Amino acid sequence: MHCKSHFVAASCAALLLLAAAAQSVDAATAQSGLQPGGKLIELDEDNWHLMLQGEWMIEFFAPWCPACKNLAPTWERFAGVAKDVKVQVAKIDVTTSPSLSGRFFVTALPTIYHVKDGEFRQYRGARDGDALLYFVKKQQWQSIEPLSAWKKPDTIHMSVLSYFFKLSHTLKDFNGRLQEEYGLPTWGSYALFAIATIFVGAALGLLLVCLVDFVYPPKKSQRQSFSESQDNLAEGVEDLATEEIEDDGEAEENEDEQRESEEEEPEDDDDEEEEDSEEQAGDLASQEKEADSEPEKAEKPEPKQAGDAAPEKTEQVRKRKPRKGD
């Protein structure tokens, strides 16, 4: 009897040890993201860095996607045969890992990526098991151009984009919770988000202004109180009004001077006309005198001496005085 009791106790202890070992294996499997059998790996926001080492085939899916549901059996079979070519097969649920969909910039479902030592290529071929196996076995991925440096998921800017995707998913869940649990209408949740957006934008703007003021402080000459700025503004307005008044006075003086000059111009014209008429009368009188003296000179010619040059008649032409223009 004692032997039987010892045997039962030993068997119970062995069963307990086996149960504990099974639980530890299950826990390790859950942590590593492996499904039972170790064929298909589930990656998320915490362990996605595993794909940066080795060769991987990654599928982005969503439970509500019909095409993803059709691909699921083929993807599981492919994961079972891909171990022969040393390729690890994984899947990522974009509903539980929205940041990864932003990091890889997933715009359609399902989306398949081939990853080889940190180089990312998008698979666009057929979605059957033979085509997938042929793609990795014959290394057809070498003919595909990898993602450029600024599109690589492990860069800093793509990490920032992933946080925005995660934030949008969180806000969407919060909106659904407001409507389902608290009974808030749709317009009420939208109004709440609008008000929150305004306040957050104002706070960020104020923070940005303070940061810029701290990094690039203004000069002492630029710092002035509100009252000083108002006084300077009033002085500027007064100076501007004074200048306008002075300009108006100068314009009036110029107009008066123009009027006086226009009045004086007709008198000058009359004087010039009188002078011209007098000059013309004097010219006529001188011409008549010359005409009278010419016959007398013709009757009494004077003897010419040798060597003396004959005097030449010079006509005196009197230039008229030019008229001033109007």
TrEMBL record:
Keywords: Disulfide bond, Electron transport, Endoplasmic reticulum, Isomerase, Lipoprotein, Membrane, Mitochondrion, Palmitate, Phosphoprotein, Redox-active center, Secreted, Signal, Transmembrane, Transmembrane helix, Transport. The keyword Isomerase applies. Residues 243-326 are annotated as: Disordered. Residues 243-281 have a biased composition (Acidic residues). It is a single-pass type I membrane protein. Its main location: endoplasmic reticulum. It comes from the Eukaryota. Residues 16-141 form the Thioredoxin domain. Residues 1-27 form the signal peptide. InterPro entries: Thioredoxin-like_sf, Thioredoxin_CS, Thioredoxin_domain, TMX_domain-containing. The chain crosses the membrane at residues 187-216. Interacts with ATP2A2. This is Thioredoxin-related transmembrane protein 1. It comes from Drosophila rhopaloa (Fruit fly). The lineage of its organism: Eukaryota, Metazoa, Ecdysozoa, Arthropoda, Hexapoda. The gene is LOC108040857.
